[in-house]
Specification:
This protein has 13 helices and twelve strands. By secondary structure, it is α/β, with parallel strands linked by helices. The chain folds into two domains: about 110 residues, Alpha-Beta Complex (Aspartate Aminotransferase, domain 1), CATH 3.90.1150; about 210 residues, Type I PLP-dependent aspartate aminotransferase-like (Major domain) (Aspartate Aminotransferase, domain 2), CATH 3.40.640. It has a seven-stranded mixed β-sheet, sandwiched between helices.
């Protein structure tokens, strides 16, 4: 029997999530925090005691859930955590859908979502975004899906789902609506504090972006206690490692001013970068995240040329309604200037 025959049928068409992570002088490809980590988190990691490494971490991160609850404005029982937001997403999908059920999502969106669907034996149902980059709640509901996934601000388009369409989806869904707010700190609004009042809404967030802790993998979700409990069952114990939890607690307790300064700088640099892109006759989509996306003629070739000039960006090919495009993270202005200089040379 071959290894392919031994594998689950649902896994046979899955490819590994493998963006190009080859080291580059300036890496603007993965939407993480390019300003470092909160000083309070760095100090906590430098002062780690041996027992924090040799013993298991807390079972379900009760201290971290309590601190996240304070940050969002909800109760500890309305928060769950995981090893990055993708772990929380996977656990939630597994908790609320049986194999064979449908998972509906806007297209394009986070590339791991159809993979999570297949990993859990679900049928992925991509629904095109509307012409204004909003979600199409009616078309999503028409799938009869058991789980709906919405990323807002959306990755890779950087655009927001409107309140009207989200309310229509949440009100009409017969299953769970998972709202991924990984980039919400950069956006004008969030549903996180309101999630517990909706029995079918789970808002998923992360400390990988604005808080600068991507390498430590700390994700979380907010919802009503019954929803959160089912995700806890699905995720299992010990999912947030002890060092990550200590750094996260320090960042939440003493690093919030640092985080806000970084957010303010990203928003300022994002607007400035968008203006410069337009001067190059490029057309970025309206961004509410810490990155911008803009159409190009040949994303793969342009990405290769930019790498040759020392700047890494993320290429996308054949996106619905967009075609080829580049996604560029927003960081310190020196990095953005280097990206602009490389773009000017590459597209000349």
């Amino acid at each position: 029997m071959t290894s392919l025959e031994l594998a689950r049928a649902a896994y046979r068409e899955i490819s590994l999530y493998a963006p190009d992570r080859t080291p580059c002088a300036i890496d603007l490809s993965d939407n993480t925090n390019l300003f470092g980590i909160p000083p309070s988190a760095r100090r906590e990691l430098q002062e780690v005691v041996t027992s924090a490494v040799t013993r298991y971490p807390p079972l379900y991160s009760s201290a971290l859930k309590a601190e996240l609850g304070k940050y969002i404005g909800v109760a500890e029982t309305e928060v769950t955590t995981g090893c990055g937001s993708d772990d929380v997403l996977d656990s939630a999908i597994r908790a609320f859908a049986e194999p064979g059920d449908k998972l509906a999502f806007p297209d394009p969106t986070f590339a791991m979502v159809p993979i999570f669907a297949k990993m859990n034996g679900l049928q992925p149902c991509p629904i095109p975004l509307r012409s204004n980059w909003d979600i199409d709640a009616g078309a999503l509901l028409a799938t009869g899906a058991r789980v709906f996934y919405i990323c807002s601000p959306n990755n890779p388009t950087s655009t927001l789902a409107s309140r009207h369409q989200l309310e229509k989806l949440i009100g009409g869904a017969r299953g769970v609506v998972i709202l991924d707010e990984a980039y919400s700190e950069y956006a004008p609004e969030s549903w996180a504090s309101k999630a517990p009042s909706h029995s079918t809404l789970l808002v998923v967030r992360t400390l990988s972006k604005a808080f600068g802790l991507a390498g430590l993998r700390v994700g979380y979700a907010i919802g009503s206690p019954p929803l959160v409990m089912e995700v806890e069952k699905s995720r299992g114990p010990y999912k947030v490692n002890a060092l990550a939890e200590r750094a996260a607690l320090a960042a939440l307790r003493q690093g919030r001013d640092w985080v806000q300064q970084g957010i303010d700088t990203v928003l300022e640099n994002r607007s400035r970068f968008e203006r410069e892109l337009r001067l190059l006759r490029l057309s970025p989509l309206p961004s509410s995240a810490n990155f911008v996306l803009f159409p190009v003629a040949d994303a793969v070739a342009l990405t290769k040329n930019l790498r040759g000039l020392g700047v890494a960006v993320r290429p996308f090919t054949n996106l619905p309604q967009i075609g080829d495009a580049l996604r560029i993270s927003i960081g310190p202005w020196e990095m953005m200037e280097a990206a602009l200089s490389a773009l000017r040379e590459a597209i000349a």
